[in-house]
Amino acid sequence: MDEDLKTSVKGQILSIKDLPTLPKVLDEVSRLVQDPNANTDEIAKIISRDQVLSAKVLKMVNSPVYGFPGRIGTVQHALVLLGFNVVRGIIISTSVFDMMVKAMEGLWEHSLGCALAANVVARAAGLPDPEEYSVAGLLHDLGKVVAAVQMPELHESVSQAVREQDLRWFEAERAVMGFGHDRINAWLARHWNLPGNIREGMSHHHSPETAQLYPDTAAAVHVGDWIVRIYEYGTGGDDQAALLSRKALDMLGLKLADLDRILDEFAGQLAEVSDLDMA
Amino acid sequence: MAETPFARRQNAFLLSPDPELARLLGGLWPEDQLRFTVFERGRAAIERLFNDPPDLLVVDNRLTDISGAEVAALVKSENVYRQLPVILVLDEGDMGHAWDWDQVEVDDFLVRPLAAAQVRARVDLTMLRAMRALDANPLSKLPGNTSIIQRIQQCIDREEDFALAYCDLDYFKSFNDKYGFSRGDEVLMMTARVIVNTIRAFAGVRSFVGHVGGDDFVFIMPPDLVEEACRRVVQTFDSIVPHFYDADDRARESIVSVDRQGVTRTFPLMAVSIAVVFSTGARRLSHAGEAASIAMGLKKKAKENPKSCYVLDQRER
Description:
The complex is a heterodimer.
Chain A: H1 3-14, H2 23-34, H3 40-47, H4 51-61, H5 75-82, H6 84-92, H7 101-124, H8 130-138, H9 142-150, H10 152-165, H11 169-177, H12 181-191, H13 196-203, H14 215-230, H15 246-252, H16 258-278
Helix pairs in contact in A: 2-3, 2-6, 3-5, 4-5, 7-8, 7-14, 7-16, 8-13, 8-14, 9-10, 9-12, 10-11, 12-13, 13-14, 14-15
Chain B: E1 10-15, H1 19-26, E2 34-39, H2 42-51, E3 56-60, H3 68-76, E4 86-90, E5 108-111, H4 116-135, H5 145-157, E6 162-170, H6 172-179, H7 181-200, E7 208-213, E8 216-221, H8 226-240, H9 247-252, E9 254-258, E10 264-268, E11 271-279, H10 288-303, E12 309-312
Parallel strand pairs in B: 1-2, 1-3, 3-4, 4-5, 11-12
Antiparallel strand pairs in B: 6-8, 6-11, 7-8, 9-10
């Protein structure tokens, strides 16, 4: 596909002014930020389940206004540094989707599942700061959300290609636009000054071996994405079989045999989260 | 009438040939709050202005020997006098043309006919604005030394029970030497944010955070909450600061840099040291300087520990 389309899509993506989220987590957080005695850990735990709210606080704390762009990679740290007033400001100015709600719910579950899975994988691989792998997992499909909001027609064409040509979402994106959400993620992460590890997790989870600085993060998100697809928790936009890169496992120093333990651990955590969903 | 917003008596110069203006301004504040010295001629006031700068300068455009704009320019072009707030008094006719406020660097202006209440409010606001702008730390924008000392003195004068915490960073200099000043500034901005938000998280509490300069910060809290505040600052700082290092240094938990003697050494990651001084019914501080000198002693103790820590003043409380 031609460069002109890419340039115009990039412009559209980066000009996003209002990124909506789903009502459930937003309602919950809205209640909490009304309570002056609510503690940061509680709020962080809930925001960490929503890719859009997490992206918003990380974007804000990494903006040059605060003076340390690209340094903060966890929601917990972001909330401490932003402070209660700013967080409340973000929450009250966030709107909710009035369309595409069904599709987005699937994508939200898929992202939350990937956050949990990437965290489990990072722990199993003995990596430091596993919370940051959760964030990379949570945001790994953010580009799909932003594309749906900013370019609903292109988004619909991709969705159509998935249905009619039996493609994976990622393949359909490349067929329709010439590039995938991994590229969109890279634009967003750079524009928002997100830390390098989060950026590479977002932009290289389909090809972790091409990550230049933080292959561990890209690989953990890749494996996380595969795990959550196995469990069919939520949806990344298609129902194709997941592909697991052996290279990703190698990069993490994991063996196929380790996956049993990882999958069990993930299943346990997923049950906890699904229980929360019922509540 | 509202309480005076100023901590001590303020001196103002009025440069004006208009006795009515002098009478109006002179009658707006009690002498012990804001006292005006009136000069009917502009030139005569300049030397006095430079030798003994006031806290406020009001210049009437009706001056005949020198224009108000010129007086303002004289003051504002010298870095040592720039902070002096200048208010220009105009007549309605002066507003017939557009003023170039970039050239005439005054802080505010008043236009005749003057309404007393409005003049008073505008002057108070101008002075407070100048004070805040001058005293704010240029990096963190937190209140600086003047405000800090003022606040401590205010607590002492009101006989409040308070705890005063002095924070600084260990190994900040070696971090700066290795990573450069702008990376150092990132750490200071983060530290400011950690302290401010930790203190503010105590809802409904009278507190204060100031930035003395460099890696020195101050906060004021009620005595019964200060230890918890210190604990939270230490914990939050320690969990965030590793992210300000490059990945390899973070993994090693140390950096290689040059010490004050020029010798290459290994330094631990930065840590925050806090020294806390109390002023309570049992033992009150007598002035702001006393707090600082006690804190310096405690600081030495806190610094013996290379990790983040806080030391509370253990003298009778």
